[in-house]
Amino acid sequence: MIVEKVTRKSRRYNEDRFLEFKSCFMVMDGATSLAPTKFKPSGGSFLVSYLKNNLPKGNDSIIEKLYTLSKELSKYTDEKSEEYLPSAGLAWCEIKEDIVNIHTIGDCEVVVITNNGKIIRYVQPELIKLDSLAIKEMIDISKEKSISIKDARKYVNDMLIKHRKMMNKVDGYNVFAPYDNPNFNFLSASVERKDVKYIYLFSDGFASAFDCFGIYNSFETMFKDEIDLKLIIDKIVNVSSNPSTLYETIPLVGLISYLLPFFSLILSFFQMLL
User: Fold this and answer.
1) CA–CA separation, 259 and 176 (whole Å)
2) On the CB side of 186, how many CA atoms lie within 13 Å of its CA?
């Protein structure tokens, strides 16, 4: 098995983490609260560091342990309203002798390429849809006020708080977060190992190549051939750092997580060749 991994940050700290042990691989994408936080350097960074340091490295159930860690983390948070809570998207796979178990929560993704060329995407779409609404509003405001999309963010703060309050609610979106009594909805699936050629795990920063910036018109287009990781990341960074190209490249239904400042992409990516 060949494993390739990369993360790229655009500020002094990173809210993404990798976890790799035995035959388990995980990508974590932390998100800081929308209100002032006591965590340093950020709530999202603290949360994913805690997960990485405390998730089981043996045969214990990761999902069961995530419930335990959610309860433990709730002791560090004084506020219980969702806009004050850090959270994290997670995507991981457990490679067994005959089967590959896949799990996601939030907007981290898994893409599997089978030996016969089939491309299968595993992602929970709810947060992506909410992100799209926020980005469309930011784009509209930036045009109306002749300001940058980054500067338009402050005008959509009420929308962001409204969306954050939908965290782990019915008709809302799923994500890992600290709770006294957690109740998470993971997307889980299994594929036969003999059918798998590649497995890709990534955060929404990497997904922006097809979901946001129009570098590829679909995930199928991006993954139809073997991934050139450096080339894709260079393209994402180039587009995201060049405001003059953004209006042309961002489809109105695109996304980039509003949990990160706009133009502040953090890319995390696992590639496995089985």
Assistant:
1) 14
2) 20
Residues making up the chain, counted from first to last: 274
* Cβ within 8 Å of residue 10, ≥6 positions away: 237, 263, 264, 265, 266
Here the tokens at position 22 are 């035995």
Domain around 169: 2-273
Instruction: Give dist(CA 67, CA 87) in Å, integer.
Output: 13
Query: Pairing mode, if any, of strands 109-114 and 24-31?
Result: unpaired
CATH of the domain at 55: 3.60.40.10
- In a 3-state reduction of DSSP, which class is residue 95? strand
Token pair in block for residue 141: 């405001």
Query: pLDDT of 218-271, one tens digit each?
Result: 889 888 888 787 888 888 877 766 655 555 544 433 333 322 333 233 445 556
Name the β-bridge partners of 173: 167
